[in-house]
Design brief:
357 residues, alpha/beta, two-stranded antiparallel sheet
Length: 357
Amino acid sequence: MLNVETKLNNLNTLAEYRRGLLVRPELRNLFLELTLRCNERCIHCGSSCGDVSSEELSVPEYDKLLREVKEDFGTGHKMLCITGGEPLLRKEFFEITDIAHRLGFSWGMTSNGTLITPEVARELRRVGMRTISVSIDGLEDTHDAFRRTPGGYRKAMQGIENLLSVGGWSAVQVTTVVTHQNIDQLDELFTIFDKMDIDSWRVINIEPIGRAKQHPELLLTPDDYRRMFSFIRQKRIEGQPVCYGCSHYLGTEYEHEVRDWYFLCTAGLYTASIMANGDITACLDIERRPEFIQGNIRRDRFSEVWNNRFKEFRIDLSDSTEMCKGCPEAGFCHGGAFHSYNFDEHRPEVCFRDVLF
């Protein structure tokens, strides 16, 4: 554990580094939303995926995009993050990922795991998948109710086992969304995952975005948050591969304690996304407002959009946020994560001041 003085020095260095990124962004993560269709109906889904019909990019359009990205940015230190919806529902999934693999991109995927049969796991290995994060959101009954998918837990757990049987991945991760209803299950979930050969367990809080706004009873209380972060920190002290996600500034007590890095919202700085219909934006979890669409790959070259637009994301949100004024740590938080910011009321929906610090 680092002392507070060291953390403050590191946070000040990061704040200075971020100021440079605002004018010289560096593409590192490109998310590809292959589809909005999903075979689950998760209560918390930020994109409200499910039985969604939307125009999807064709295989030739993905081929053109990826060739242009390679030509303009190269493939070194770049990660393609394949997502959805449930990306495996895209019937051309293996054609698209094979193109990425042959072009030399590293790529990983988020999935609900229910469609990963032994044959699918072997195909994922063939087309070069390196990492995957599979969602398990509680014990069996809780998971199935949360995802509104009877049998979803058993299918997802079998999907993980199928991946582990094939092997050869850089990382197989489980992600759990913690709610007010499942926080009591963390210890039992740890016991289950500890017996599996996964590489890490990512524990994150439900966010007040998308469908979750309709379920305030699931949101965490201040005591829930303190309990969750204390749980993660204690497991890490014990040497366990448990971590928190990238979201939110946590204050000097918890920064660098529950994850290996300090908070930095990378939307538009390291991270860009291509929506299923070709629209270009920053992070896919950010509210889908017209002003945040930076272009569309059907008419724009991605590199020109990345280099010349994204102005809405290369700012400090705290500059226009009344609740941030006077906060001594606003220079580390910058107004918080873009995906949980209320752009109508100009305030962060999630702030841990007076909760963690």
